[in-house]
Amino acid sequence: MPALDNRPFVKMNGLGNEIVVLDLRDAPVAVPPQEARAIARPDVVPFDQIMALYPPKTEGTSAFVRIINADGSESGACGNGTRCIALYEAGRTGADHLVFESVAGPLDCRVSGETVTVDMGVPRFGWHDIPLAGPVDDTRAIELQAGPHEAPVLRGPSVANVGNPHAIFWVDDVDAVDLSSYGPELEHHPIFPERANISLAQLVGPDHIRLKVWERGVGLTRACGTAACATAVAAARNGMTGRRVTITLPGGDLVIDWRDDDHMLMTGPAEFEFEGRLTAAMLGATAG
Question: Which residues are catalytic?
Fold first, then answer.
């Protein structure tokens, strides 16, 4: 019998980043990669991430969260998914201040209506923290390109780890580059031993950036909260913006505030879509 058979789920989204919430706190069970891939099928409940809630490990926290991508791999952080579980838990308990645990650290959330602010922690910039395959002196721009060798389309990305690895390529127009053509190759480039999220970032003004994201383990997505955070801090490090910026993704806007204590605050909406219950048929074997 599938591990997740007959388990209830809640379908939510954060700026169109498709999220399935599985509350497993009462009867914890692992989320097998093959069952995650089965749920993600177009005719079942397509998602970008599953946010699986487990019993808390630390007093005063609501849950320990495991984040599973659509391909069955696990992620260290998901900003849009965190806003979704904060809204879910606020609706369940009435609380407006919630703290979750994750492999990347604590996630402190404040809920106001359908708007959620999440403390995404402190970014890391060392080559070994991202991680990269070898030493790099300056992660504000590394040696990496995509496209024809003599005329690369993308080059010199900024890199950062905000719970997962990110590479941000600065472009004049995010609509002028077909990210789906370069995302898979760059995600799996040997320079990224744990793969990476790949973003195209367009500077609109000193406090505004447009962003498109190829998400590790997912593909093109309408929004990625960690990519927005990584882009905001990379822009500030490069002197392009101040420490508070609006990031416009295909799904909408996020506000990122990189505080003086180095913590990144991400503010944006989340919403419920529908509830359901997983069945053995939904969890059936996939073609791959």
Answer: 78, 224
Question: Is 36 in a helix, a strand, or coil?
Answer: helix
> What class has domain 145-262?
alpha beta
In CATH, which superfamily holds the domain spanning 8-121+270-277? Diaminopimelate Epimerase; Chain A, domain 1 (3.10.310.10)
Instruction: Determine the average pLDDT of the residues in 161-184.
Output: 97
CATH topology match: 8-121+270-277 vs 145-262: yes
Length of the chain: 288
Structure tokens at 80: 């849009």
The DSSP letter of residue 107 is E
Is residue 160 within 8 A of residue 179, CB to CB? The reply is no
Residue pLDDT, tens place only, 38-65: 999 999 999 999 999 999 999 999 999 9
SS3 annotation, 171-229: CCCHHHCCHHHHHHHHHCCCCCCCCCEEEEEEEEECCEEEEEEEECCCEEECCCHHHHH
Would the pTM count as exceeding 0.90? yes
Domain ranges for the chain, please list them. Answer: 8-121+270-277, 145-262
Cα–Cα distance list, 58 to 102, 104, 168 (Å): 11, 14, 34
Phi then psi dihedrals of residue 84, to 5 deg:
-65, -45
